[in-house]
Amino acid sequence: MRYALPAAANPLISLFGFSLAGLLSASMLVEVVIGWPGVGPLLLEAILARDVYVVISAVMLSSVLVIFGNLVADLLLGATDPRIRTGVS
Amino acid sequence: MRKSNQLRVAVYALIAVHAVMLLGGFIAPYDYAVQNREYSFVPPTRIHVIDRLGHFHIHPFIYELRYDSPEDIEEGEQVYPLRFLIWGAEYKLAGLLPGRIHLFGVDEPARIFLLGTDQYGRDQLSRLLRGGQISLLAGLMAAAMSIGIGLLFGMVAGYYGRLADEAVMRLAEVFMVLPWLYLLLAVKGFLPLNLGPTRGFLLVTLVIGLVGWARPARLIRGIVLTAKERNYVIAARGFGASDLYIFRRHILPQTMAVVLTQATLLVTTYSLSEMTLSFLGLGVNEPVPSWGNMLASLQQYHVLTSYWWMFAPAFPAILVFWGYYTVANSLQEPTQ
User: Which residues from B are below 8 Å from A43, CB to CB?
Assistant: First the structure.
């Protein structure tokens, strides 16, 4: 584990950044099914009610979340792998 | 089960399901939109061979449903034998050939509901077959579109390099990073809600296919980058072959493995996306069924607990997805 984890950390963190999009979509579906009052059902109702501004803000919120998550993933990559930090090719 | 056996079973199952879906109109006893309001949430009809007096009939039969009150629907007395290859409602086989012959049915006024009915009394088996046509076709068409766009962008990005590569890759990142369901809902939300059934279905398929081209494009670009440096490609360019010739003759065959794997995986993903959209009410419009539409009624508690036959669309969906995943797995084997 001590030796496997450093080698596996790089793609693990990249995958974490990329999977945020899928997680948001899946969480929206779960929220709709179980009745949790999250952003997912809010977006759905806004679309059915043609509430354009709520749709804009919900999509923007999700995009900002995903971009921020990817930023954190990139910073984490830099923190864990000194080669990325110093730009060694 | 051994790997090769698994693959063979998966392929047979897929062929069987697609054949059944193609013949959907023929196999289904009724039209998918016909309502029988008094037969709301009726359990599946039982087919008997031994009647109430204990006599054995070679010809299977059903009992007519007796309607006393909305809560009390039981089997009546009258025996209706099961008939095969009867004339019934008009349908279009595979959407092209009109026909009226159905595989099985019973004489009027009895009804045979092999998978029960829903709230409006529509036969679930007929809706299952029609919904399967819709969901599977949406998955196939959207996957074809995604692969097409992904091939185009991937080959351009990989072959021409530098500026084209950067531009296409940044665009692909935008599409990969946005949550697909949010994007899908936002695009679908700004379109008119009341298109006709065909146009609505085509629009949903178009939107699903356009959102997900980024992943195949990235993989194809990777293949093209390595294929571009092969000896025969360099030799062909040295001899003055046009770019189109090199694409068609040398690079495209190299990408086929990735394309086929991606195609099988994308069919399942997009079929599931279409089912999700219909489940949320934003896919195909009523009364056109889709497996998602049919599962949407399970969101109500009384349907979820009392009417077990409404779960029916889930099983062919699981079968189809398992089949495609197994095929994709074995296609990926040589590269691993």
Answer: 182, 185-186
